[in-house]
Write a structure and sequence with these properties.
Layout (H helix, E strand, L loop, with lengths): L28 H14 L4 E7 L8 E6 L9 E4 L6 E4 L4 H6 L14 E6 L5 E7 L21 H12 L4 H11 L7 H16 L9 H5 L3 E6 L6 E7 L1 H9 L3 E7 L9 E7 L5 E8 L5 H15 L7 E4 L3 H10 L4 E4 L1 H12 L6 H15 L4 H15 L5 H17 L1 H4 L11 H14 L6 H28 L19 H17 L8
Parallel strand pairs: 9-12, 12-13
Antiparallel strand pairs: 1-2, 2-5, 3-4, 5-6, 7-8, 8-11, 9-10, 10-11
Helix pairs in contact: 3-4, 3-5, 8-9, 10-11, 10-13, 11-12
């Protein structure tokens, strides 16, 4: 056992007594402490409360401030002896620490003797007395390394909470604090701790699953599915009340797609979007699904059907080639048309077939041929172009079999214009809108380790902006009319249909004049 050799008060270090001796008293305990800590920061020292007594009926309040390096870390010290003869000694290392080689916890405490007394007088004013004005160590060179100096005051805590609610990234919160106060020495760790404290307090001790009450509190519609044996929630579907109203008005085209890396649970997030009459995207609903299987998709689609509540069912679904989702749509919405995203088909074919070619020139030629197949506007043209492709690239092993058996024979009616042009999909033949919604959501989330509550807050904020933009577009269509629509039969439609709808009607009329009675040019 080793007795600590504490550094004594030395005249080698300057005496700061004059700096910490004010020329006035203070009206409150807090104002005195605040002034002393400010002087401490100016001199590159951090002062902490060593002892505090609020006072009572027959005694006055008092506070003792000491240097943050005063005393010694309790975890590595123990008292030896009794009374005035007692000394502080290092704790001996345990057998486990000796065997594992673990070192004892480090500390910055060096028994600094700097001490200030703050005492309340009979006149209820607080007076400062410097008991010892010398430190036994040099002042700090950089206050950023001192956690106590970087603590947030009440005003800064409010800023952190408000910006956290606004889904602002921690680094941007810290930059804002430093712009507000150039003397702020908080670090990223300070911001992380403050955000975590707010989330814990806001949760009120509830678990993530118990936080589902947020949806009910904010009048969101939600459904969840539990595991039969463990009673654990495995799937969750939720939808904003305003989104439900939009869906019941604009259910013609629905786009669906799963995205990943949005939550700490590593669950796929199924996002469903629709299109308004003003050509804007709106979010219909969101679903955490435990797996991308037929059963999970059917459950989500049944919830979508419940939202419609007997209103007009979707005319068209646009998705990727997810087999479980394809079967689920056929089961829940058998009368709806289903299109496959042409962009994703092209992407998958490119990735699959590129390794079949030995040179880039041949592959480039193939992709040109395949693109012509992908956008064939008649059945005869599709057969002609597929035959040309088979003849030209039949020597490439497995190529034509892959295209025929995986895409053309099975799904041609879901992506080739010869069939899809007969469906009123309003030009929506890709899942680009839902992909864009994924991108916006991830941008505002900031990371892939969010919990349910954080993700809901982000979604709620995004939908508020989304719904405001949609309302503004409705007002624009009702109150602003382009000059070309003042004449003719358009005049009867003004104020009843959107500008986007008027444009589609105009384009079709102009196209009809160009095509005439030649049905082969239609489509």
């Amino acid at each position: 056992m080793y007795v600590l050799q504490v550094m004594p008060v030395s005249t080698l270090f300057p005496d700061y007594k004059d700096a910490f001796t004010p020329c006035r008293s203070f009206p409150s305990r807090e104002s005195a402490i605040s002034w002393l800590q400010m002087i401490g920061r100016e001199n590159k020292f951090v002062l902490v409360t060593k002892h505090s007594d609020a006072g009572g009926i027959k005694r006055r309040g008092r506070v003792k401030l000491a240097c943050e390096m005063s005393g010694i870390y309790r975890g590595m010290s123990q008292r030896v002896g009794k009374g005035k003869a007692a000394k502080i000694a290092l704790k001996p290392r345990t057998e486990e620490e000796e065997e594992t080689g673990r070192t004892q916890t480090g500390t910055k405490k060096c028994w600094c003797h700097f001490l200030i007394n703050i005492k309340e007088n009979v006149d209820s004013l607080w007076y400062v007395t410097v008991i010892c004005g010398r430190h036994n160590h040099d002042p700090a060179k950089n206050m950023d390394d001192h956690s106590f100096a970087g603590r947030l005051d009440k005003g800064e805590q409010v800023v952190v909470v408000q910006m956290t609610k606004g889904n602002v990234k921690p680094k941007d919160i810290l930059n804002t604090l430093k712009q507000i106060d150039v003397k702020n020495v908080s670090t990223m760790r300070t911001i992380y701790n403050a955000r975590q404290k707010f989330r814990i307090e806001d949760a009120g001790g509830r678990t993530q699953i118990q936080l589902l009450h947020i949806l009910e509190k904010n009048k969101w519609m939600s459904w969840h599915m539990k595991h039969l044996d463990t009673n654990v929630v495995t799937d969750l579907f939720w939808s904003h009340p305003d989104s439900i109203k939009l869906l019941r008005c604009f259910s013609s085209v629905i786009l669906m797609d799963c995205t990943y890396k949005t939550n700490r649970y590593r669950m796929p997030l199924l996002e469903i979007v629709g299109i308004t009459s003003t050509h804007l995207t709106f979010s219909v609903g969101f679903a955490f699904i435990s797996s991308e299987t037929y059963a999970n998709y059917v459950w989500a689609l049944e919830n979508l059907r419940s939202i419609l509540d007997g209103w007009s069912k979707p005319d068209v679904f646009v998705t990727d080639r997810e087999l479980g989702l394809i079967s689920g749509i056929e089961e829940v919405f058998p009368s709806s048309s289903h299109l496959l995203c042409s962009w994703h088909i092209n992407k998958v074919v490119l990735a699959k077939t590129k390794k079949m070619f030995g040179d880039n020139e041949g592959f480039t030629c193939f992709m040109d041929r395949w693109t012509s197949v992908l956008y064939a506007k008649s059945k005869a043209l599709l057969e002609l172009r597929m035959n040309d492709l088979r003849c030209e690239f039949g020597h490439v092993k497995g190529l034509t079999d892959y295209l025929d058996n995986t895409w053309v024979r099975i799904y041609k009616e879901k992506f080739v214009p010869a069939w899809t042009n007969r469906i009123m999909h309003f030009g929506e033949t890709t899942t680009q809108r839902v992909e864009s919604a994924h991108s916006t959501l991830k941008l505002h989330l900031g990371n892939s380790q969010t919990n349910f509550e954080t993700l809901w807050r982000v979604v709620d904020g995004l939908l508020r902006l989304q719904h405001n933009n949609i309302k503004a577009s409705f007002e624009l269509s009702m109150n602003v009319v382009q000059h070309e629509y003042f004449d003719g039969f358009y005049r009867r439609l003004l104020g009843y249909v959107s500008q986007r709808a008027l444009k589609l009607i105009r384009d079709e009329l102009e196209r009809g004049e160009d095509v005439g009675h030649d049905s082969t040019r239609c489509g």
